[in-house]
């Protein structure tokens, strides 16, 4: 090599950058979030069933909530009929958070893990929220 | 034909991943073994190529220049276009690396009727810039899968990238830009006859592979829903060297196709034209100051040429020359003369 110091330094910088996630994590495996279903309202349910199946909710809940918002705000609809034929009020704070009142352990645990930042909470934010709950 | 070979290659890769992970359920192979092997191939290949380039001979200054060379004080010197110092070279390289300055100066000659038109051609520059910057942002956004907690700048980047708040999940602008730029770079090769003529399978293959990666990523985010928690469990396992196998049922074949295409890209990278990422820094036409006139560069491995000067010749044969009456420049040896007086 004709300029070994520069070549090696360049390689170290590049490899250091590419391998940054490896050496910064130092082999520490972060705990995988387990959203908690342990709330009073859920425990009191006869049948522990969300508005749709768990698999559907896990994949599509954001689209469902988005369609609820559109339906309520733009079309004035207030109720949602599930695929099982049950009727629910289309309300994040009454229906969803009515059962899942542990936002930190339920919603936020996964959202923080995968760095999803839903804009639900910019309006639905407790005391100052749209429903004043 | 060249295009078809490349397309078949990428389709074969997709089919392989779909078959292996989706149907045969080889989650260990496609989720852990292949990504590790591909990554090691990338690191080894990158190092090998850089060291090989580092060993190549660069005895003289051969920079490509765009501007007035440093000469007399009253002639204005272009410090960045034709740098004479290391600082100038750093400036030239930085502009080239960040803004593709040489592509910006691209020109094109065209015959319009009988007249020859000559003008600036910026489309390649724009397409290349959009593609590379989008790719960088997309790659940095993926860091959210490799750190827990996620670093602030990655969150900020994601938020800025989706600031239009279109749809759910929010549309990333760089996703649109990346696919748009790749489509443009591909169409450019097909539509322009001269560029089509010089395009090789390897050119199309790299483009198709990148389009495949971007397309599967977009499909995964906006259309097929994958379990992000399972994805991050897998990626964090890989990066902390505690690989955890994720069932294909949770992730779906689309995730494994994406991962396999990314692995293919990483493994292919150092051995292909994509290695311009590393070669950029080692190109002697770019990283040398143009100071040939100010500084003498001697080729360090010039062979030692044996010379026999007239003075040495005379020292050797002086006595014999004097004996036969040949004229000499010195009567005695230089060394002896220094001692004698």
Brief summary of the model shown:
With 133 residues, chain A is mainly alpha-helical.
General description of the model:
Chain A has 133 residues and is mostly helical. Chain A has a domain at 34-123. Helix content of chain A is 47%, strand content 5%. Chain A has 6 helices and 2 strands. Chain A has helices at 4-18, 20-25, 40-43, 54-75, 92-99, 107-113, and strands at residues 79-81, 87-89. Chain A has a two-stranded antiparallel ribbon. The longest helix of chain A is centred in the middle third of the chain and has 22 residues, at 54-75. The model of chain A has no long low-confidence stretch (mean pLDDT 87). With 341 residues, chain B is mainly alpha-helical. In chain B, α1 (2-23) packs parallel to α9 (201-222), α2 packs parallel to α11 (248-268) and α5 (123-141) runs antiparallel to α7 (173-191). The longest helix of chain B has 29 residues, at 27-55. Chain B is elongated, with a radius of gyration of 31 Å. The A-B interface holds A 1-4, 7, 10-11, 14-15, 18-19, 21-22, 24-30, 32-33, 58-60, 62-63, 65-66, 110, 112-117, 119 and B 42-43, 46-47, 50-51, 54-58, 143-150, 154-155, 158-159, 165, 168-169, 225, 227-229, 231-233, 236-237, 239-242, 278, 281-282, 300.
Helix and strand content put the structural class of chain B at: mainly alpha
Query: Largest contact between protein chains?
Result: A-B, 37 and 43 residues
Approximate shape of chain A: elongated
The main pleated sheet of chain B reads as: 2 strands, antiparallel
Arrangement of strands in the largest sheet of chain B: 1-2
> How much helical structure, as a percent, in the residues of chain A?
40-55%
Structural class of chain A: mainly alpha
Q: How large is the radius of gyration of chain A?
A: 23 Å
Count of alpha/pi helices of chain B? 14
Count of separate DSSP helical elements of chain A? 6
Amino-to-carboxy terminus distance of chain B: 88 Å
The spatial strand order of the largest sheet of chain A comes to 1-2
Strand proportion of chain A, as a percent range, falls in under 5%
